[in-house]
Design brief:
By secondary structure, this protein is α/β, with parallel strands linked by helices. The protein is built from 13 helices and ten strands. Helix 5 links the parallel strand 5 and strand 6.
């Protein structure tokens, strides 16, 4: 269920009946929500926005996300959503996949035939994967995962010619390329063709190929786990494959975090150091492992200390107990906002504007908010009647975040770790 799409439709209908059919922008905010509101409506430049606030509050009671408060200032309106109702709907529907791709055509993502130069690494060794091709493969996998998750029908790569002969007018071909076709992409057999241009990966002789880079990142992740998170991965079961998996995930994050058409320059260090706001794959995986440990600990407490079972539905939970700004941020921006992030990743209705890096930006925002909330809030409390209700609703919120992170890791092709 896409609750933000429903709210956008409800607000658009209300504005239409209020005399506003065009000339305004409607934006869902993602920071300072308690102060700035959850939704902003802006009309023109100098035109005053005139709305019947009482009618808005009354009619919105029938919406899944009702409006609790509205302030009009000049040409701008700020709306605050009724929190408890939003928590109920958001935590009830977060497992439903946003299937906005159903019936919107078939997708074929083709592999670009590598040139002789692309088949060789920096040192001229054949049959090794270059960093440029590693980046292109990472982008292909993310797009395939997102298209599949949202209900698009993907054409098999194994026999594309047979698939092209069937209803080619309903087929969209996506090519991830180093250079675009001169004169623009052609229509092949009636199929629509989109070319996604991928920028180069610049590096020195110290990085021979993708395997070398993954090995380097594996070592980095081992040191980060040991010195920052105080975990010695060498003592974990199957440590070699675990360390290799972390290095691969780190390399994927490094090549996905920049816009696909931009160059990645590794000559001054690792790709992750080029974006100062990005904490890298270790931050994502650590917060996922943190939630895994939290729910494992609670299950142990339930079995040994008589804590109540975590409810499977939201019925009977008191969501008025969720009053922290970060709790609302986690729900509204990330749990409810996840379908919107997927739409933006796939171009928001225009596939020519696909932006896989936006999904990684969304993931970093989620884990940053989660980390701050987890650090400042005591989740597991004593098993006492006055404390248990708040603990249960917080665990239900974090359960939805845990599920969302699991989905995101799969979409980004990152291997989850449950201990770190």
């Amino acid at each position: 269920m896409d609750l933000l799409a429903e709210l956008h439709r409800d607000l658009t209908n209300f504005l239409s009946t209020s005399g506003y059919t065009t000339g305004y922008t409607l934006k869902f905010l993602d920071r300072r929500l308690c102060q700035m509101g959850d939704v902003m409506i802006r009309h023109g430049i100098d035109s005053e926005l005139r709305l019947d606030v009482e009618r808005l509050l009354l009619e919105s009671k029938e919406w899944n996300l009702p409006i609790e408060r509205a302030i009009l200032e000049g040409n701008t309106g700020r709306l605050w959503i009724q929190r408890a109702t939003a928590f109920q709907w958001g935590l009830e529907s977060y497992r439903q996949r946003p299937m906005f791709g159903v019936g919107r055509g078939r997708i074929f993502i083709e592999d670009e035939p590598p040139t002789d130069d692309q088949q060789r690494d920096t040192n001229g060794q054949p049959n090794t994967l270059s960093m440029a091709n590693f980046r292109m493969n990472a982008l292909r996998k993310v797009l395939r995962n997102c298209f599949t998750y949202t209900g698009y029908q993907l054409v098999s790569e194994r026999d594309p010619e047979d698939n092209r002969d069937h209803d080619s007018r309903n087929l969209i071909e996506i090519a991830i390329v180093h250079r675009k076709t001169r004169g623009g992409p052609e229509q092949l057999g009636g199929a629509r063709r989109i070319e996604m241009l991928v920028g180069p990966v610049l590096h020195g002789a110290d990085i021979g190929n993708a395997d070398d880079y993954i090995a380097r990142r594996s070592n980095d992740m081992q040191l980060i786990a040991q010195h920052k998170y105080r975990v010695d991965l060498r003592h974990m079961p199957d440590s070699h494959s675990s360390i290799a998996s972390l290095g691969r995930s780190a390399a994927i994050v490094d090549v996905l975090q920049a816009k696909h058409s931009s160059a990645i320059d590794m000559r001054r260090g690792l790709a992750s150091s080029t974006i100062s706001s990005c904490k890298g794959a270790s931050f994502i995986l650590y917060n996922y492992a943190r939630l895994a440990a939290l729910f494992e600990k609670y299950e142990t407490m339930r079995q040994t200390q008589g804590y109540p079972e975590l409810p499977s539905t939201v019925e009977g939970l008191d969501f008025t107990l969720l009053t922290e700004p970060d709790e609302w941020q986690l729900l509204f921006v990330y749990v409810i906002g996840f379908p919107t992030a997927l739409r933006q990743t796939l171009g928001d209705g225009m596939l020519e504007r696909m932006a896989p890096h936006r999904l990684l930006e969304f993931t970093f925002g989620l884990v940053s908010c989660l980390s701050k909330y987890y650090r400042q809030t005591r989740i597991l409390t004593e098993n006492r009647p006055k404390l248990v209700p708040a603990m249960l609703v917080r665990l239900c919120l974090l359960r939805s975040v845990y599920h969302m992170l699991d989905v995101l890791l799969n979409l980004l092709n990152l291997e989850a770790v449950t201990k770190m």
